[in-house]
Amino acid sequence: MDSGSELEVETPQLLGRRQILTEFLEESPYDFITYLERATCHSELGYPDLAAGDAYRALLLIDEVRDEGFEYHYRALEALESRCEGRVPAILPELRAGDITKTMKALSLNNIAQDSALSEILDRASLQCYRCLSTSLLLCGCLKSSYGFCLRGLGIVPEDEDLLFKKEHIRSVARRKLSLKDDEIDINDLKDQGLVRREIYPWNEHEPDRFSQETLDFLNTELRAVASKCEVRVTELPTLYEVNGIGAIVGATNKQLGLFADTDITSGETILDEYSALTANNRLKESLCDSCSGVLPPLDANTTVVGCPDCDDTMFCNELCLERSADYHPAVCDKDIDTIAKDPDPKETPNALYLLLLARALAMAETKEVHPLELKEVKYIWGDFLPSAANAVPVGPDTPSPPVWTLPFSFASNISGPLHVLEKMDIDIFASVERYDLWIFNSLYAKFRGTASARVNLRDGRPEVAAVHPLWCLANHDCNPNVQWEWAGQMRLWCREKRCDGTKGGIKEGQEILNHYCDIELKVQDRREWAKGSLGGWCMCERCKREAQEEATNGIHAEEHKRETIKASLDG
Ligand SMILES: C[S@@+](CC[C@H](N)C(=O)[O-])C[C@H]1O[C@@H](n2cnc3c(N)ncnc32)[C@H](O)[C@@H]1O
User: CATH: 1.10.10.10, 1.10.579.10, 1.20.1630.10, 2.170.270.10. Which one for 227-271+469-548?
Assistant: First the structure.
């Protein structure tokens, strides 16, 4: 695929093939050959992250075939047999038909252990997986993981040209980026956080029309229960860009949702009080409620704190939080899931919190027996998605990721971490591809990254709790907000007594609820830096525009003053 027009012609065919392969996987979930075929299809469609996910599942299934003691051994072996009846799967071109037929015959005679020919097939298949993983992860910008898989492949076939080329490529990037000589390179210093496409995948049938009357009616019914004086409306917002300084590209707008007062609200009045079970904390031994992530009340004689009656160590603020945990806890009760992503390395803290949020969403989906993207806490929230067409680029080893790819991605957070969570929940990760495929994790991450709030530990200042409040997060940002918020178990939003510009608080009917995503005490540049992650670009609210203009003018004046002083001293 090397030109835009070929891409346009091929995409519908490739999407059709992807659909067929996915349906086949739903019917025959332990078939690593189909996973490898779908990995190729995802690569050709320009989704290297999804290709890496498929190659990794194929690798896990190859291990299942290899080891008789593994849980899905017989099913994976059976799937391989049925794919190899008298022919070589095209995805394994380096094998000869004769070898496969001989091997399969030996297999049917139950002669597995002695059969080195089977090992040869599995080694060749593993090599394909390693090639795909290392190329795909490289394209996503995950150099360290790519290198690791490259070495594992070379462990099987040391002279493999494809992997040797990639190994050298990564080492030369490392030499350049880390300014090191070859023998000084420590692969652990390589970047492992990449970016991938953030979009509503063409096959995603779960995303609602966020602007339809049906969606607005649903959201407003939900909102009524927690915020009686405002409603969700469709609005136009400026399209933001990550452009430094004043004069970011302005004029363009885009359609989104926002919260609006539907009656006058007086200063100090509570506007919204929302509970969410979509919370997570990263402290292994901390006294936080498992349900709302609020600090547990004291454990004295009159304590309201209750534990889960069926598992140790899961504590709740009170009976209500215990009752609410019925939405997710059954899927993880007594499942040894508590240590995942807890007490992370400081560098990994944000990723660990997002992984924990994902784990909570998966537990909710499993408990309620719904598709994760159909959870009402998730379905309607903003994902900051770009159109697929804006993300689509021809891919190849020499094509760098285009700048529009905006979803943070790593092998650990997006591929192995979620699968580990599912395994801990006793979910068969192969038979559940319809609900727990990588594109579903990515879609959830996109939504969480656009809407989650975090709370820091007061002792060390590190983020320790994250949550998505699906109604609160409908309010847009302004650096001169008319509301204030606090999250301590419940998310509470109230009307400010006084605005930043000194005017008195109060919101009139029809006015927008203007929230704040950053510390509004900061200077304009710092506010913009802080909020750009959740805004998707440079804040262009009236206060930011005015203050940035003032700073620029003051900067010019200061510069002129400096020049004049220098000139005067030279003249003097
Ligand atoms: C938490 S959501 C807010 C609700 C969102 N508008 C919706 O439709 O659900 C955050 C997103 O809203 C948009 N947004 C919020 N405040 C904005 C502002 N002041 N200017 C431009 N976009 C804003 C950005 O696209 C941001 O990524």
Answer: 2.170.270.10
Ligand 1: lining residues by beta carbon, under 6 Å: 237-238, 240, 256-258, 382, 384, 450-451, 473-474, 476-478, 534-536, 541
- ipTM given for this complex: 0.99
Q: How far, in Å, from the CA of 404 to the mean position of ligand 1?
A: 18
Residue pLDDT, tens place only, 356-407: 999 999 999 999 999 999 999 999 999 999 888 777 765 555 665 555 788 9
Size of the chain in residues: 572
Measure 411 CA to ligand 1 centroid, in angstroms. Answer: 28
Q: Which of 243, 256, 532 has most ligand 1 atoms within 8 Å of CB, for mutation?
A: 256
Residue nearest atom 26 in ligand 1 by C-alpha distance = 535
CA distance readout (Å), 205 to 39, 373, 379: 21, 9, 11
What residue's CA is closest to ligand 1, atom 8? 257
Q: What is the pTM of this model?
A: 0.91
Q: What are phi and psi of 188, to 5 degrees?
A: -65, -20
Residues 6 or more apart whose CB falls under 8 angstroms from that of 413 comprise 351, 354, 355, 445
Residues of the chain with CATH 2.170.270.10: 227-271+469-548
Type and span of the H or E element at 76: helix 73-83
Which one of 219, 237, 474, 542 would you pick to mutate in the ligand 1 pocket, going by the greatest count of ligand atoms within 8 A of its CB? 237
Give the count of alpha carbons within 13 A of 326, CB side only.
4
Distance CA 378, CA 147 (A): 35
The protein residue whose alpha carbon is closest to atom 19 in ligand 1 is 477
Alpha carbons 283 and 278: distance in angstroms, whole number:
16
Q: Judging by DSSP bridges, how do beta strands 407-409 and 490-495 pair with one another?
A: unpaired
CB 269 within 8 A of CB 494: yes
What's the CA-to-centroid distance between 477 and ligand 1, angstroms? Answer: 7
Cα distances from 54 to residues 36, 58, 522, in angstroms, run 6, 6, 45
**Position in ligand 1 atom list of the atom nearest CA 381:** 9
